[in-house]
Write a structure and sequence with these properties.
By secondary structure, the chain is α/β, with parallel strands linked by helices. It has 7 helices and 12 strands. Helices cover 30% and strands 24% of the residues. The structure holds NADP nicotinamide-adenine-dinucleotide phosphate (NAP).
Length: 267
C-alpha cells in the first residue's frame, strides 16, 4: 500500500503537535510538509520540539506549499478563519482536507460541501475526533426522542477561542433533528445577569465553561417529571482525539463526499 502523503497545518499547536506524532508514528502515513505562519522556509527539525523529524519543510503560505509539494491530505488544526482558507485552497489543489479546527459557520460548511462536490473529492470536518465524544452525541440523540428538555454544558480550557464548542453545536443539531421544537424554561423567565441562561439553540440552552486545567468535557442533561439523565464525556489529553484523526485520514482517501462529523464515518 502506498503511504498517504500528509500536510499538517498548525504543527506547534496542542492538537497539531499530537497530529505530528500520529502521522510520523503511523507506518502508512508520511508527513510531507507543515503549514506554520511563524517558521516559513525552515525545516521542521529546526523548530523546537521537532528535532527528531527530518526532511519536512515548513511553509507559511499554503498555496506555495501545494504548488511545491505533492500531497494527498491536509490535516488542519489551526483557527477558524485560517482553517477555512486552508481547507478551500487544499480542495482547489485536489488535496483532501481533514479538519479538526472548530468554529466554522454554516456558510463555510456549505461552501466546502459545494467545492467537494465540484472537485469530486473527499473532505471530513469533525468538531470532535474523540470516539467517546461521538458516542456521547449519539446517545444524546437517542435520549432526546424521550426527553424534550435538555441543557448542554460544555467545559474547555481557557485558551479556547470559540464558544460554544463545535461539539456542543453539533450535539444540539443532532438533538434538534429528532426532538420536537420546544422553548424550554418558564415563559416569563428573566435574566438578572445577561447570559445566565446560556446560548439558545432551538429552545435548548448551551452553557460554555472556560477554566485552566480543563481539556474538553461535555455533559448533556435531560429532565422530565421525577427524573434526570446525564450523559457525560471527558477528554483528559489531546491523544484522545488521534484515533479519530487516523480513521478520518484513511476514510477521506476512499470517499469522494463531504462529511461533517466523525459519527458519519464510524460503524
Ligand atoms: P492551539 O494550541 O492554539 O493551536 C493552534 C495552532 O495554529 C497554533 O500553533 C497557531 O500558531 C497555529 N496557527 C494560527 N494561525 C496559523 C496560520 N495562519 N498558519 C498556520 N498555523 C497557524 O489550539 P489547539 O488546542 O491545538 O486547537 C486547534 C483547533 O482544533 C481549534 O479550533 C480547536 O477548537 C480545535 N480542536 C478540535 C478538536 C477535535 O477533536 N476536532 C479537539 C480539540 C481542539 P501560533 O500559536 O503561533 O499563532
Amino acid at each position: 500500500m502506498n503511504s498517504i502523503k500528509i500536510i499538517i497545518a498548525g504543527p506547534r499547536g496542542r492538537m497539531g503537535s499530537e497530529a505530528v506524532k500520529l502521522v510520523t508514528n503511523t507506518g502508512h502515513f508520511e508527513l510531507v510538509a507543515t503549514i506554520d505562519h511563524k517558521n516559513d522556509g525552515m525545516m521542521l527539525s529546526d523548530v523546537e520540539g521537532f528535532q527528531s523529524i527530518p526532511n519536512v519543510p515548513v511553509y507559511s503560505d499554503i498555496e506555495k506549499c501545494l504548488l511545491d509539494i505533492e500531497a494527498d491530505v491536509l490535516i488542519d488544526l489551526t483557527t477558524p478563519e485560517v482553517g477555512m482558507y486552508h481547507a478551500k485552497t487544499a480542495l482547489e489543489h485536489n488535496v483532501r482536507p481533514v479538519v479538526g479546527t472548530t468554529g466554522f459557520t454554516k456558510q463555510d460548511l456549505e461552501e466546502l460541501e459545494k467545492l467537494c462536490f465540484e472537485k469530486e473529492l473527499g473532505c471530513i470536518i469533525a468538531p470532535n475526533f474523540a470516539v467517546g465524544a461521538v458516542l456521547m452525541m449519539k446517545f444524546s440523540q437517542m435520549a432526546a426522542k424521550y426527553f424534550a428538555d435538555v441543557e448542554i454544558i460544555e467545559m474547555h480550557h481557557d485558551q479556547k477561542l470559540d464558544a460554544p464548542s463545535g461539539t456542543a453545536v453539533k450535539t444540539a443539531e443532532m438533538i434538534s433533528a429528532v426532538r420536537e421544537s420546544k422553548k424550554q424554561g418558564h415563559p416569563n423567565e428573566k435574566e438578572t445577569i445577561t447570559g445566565a441562561r446560556g446560548g439558545e439553540y432551538d429552545g435548548m440552552h448551551i452553557h460554555s465553561v472556560r477554566l485552566p486545567g480543563l481539556i474538553a468535557h461535555q455533559q448533556v442533561l435531560f429532565g422530565s417529571d421525577g427524573q434526570t439523565l446525564t450523559i457525560r464525556h471527558d477528554s483528559y489529553n489531546r491523544g484522545s482525539f488521534m484515533s479519530g484523526v487516523k480513521v478520518a485520514v484513511e476514510t477521506v482517501m476512499k470517499n469522494n463526499t463531504f462529511v461533517y462529523g466523525l459519527e458519519n464515518i464510524l460503524d
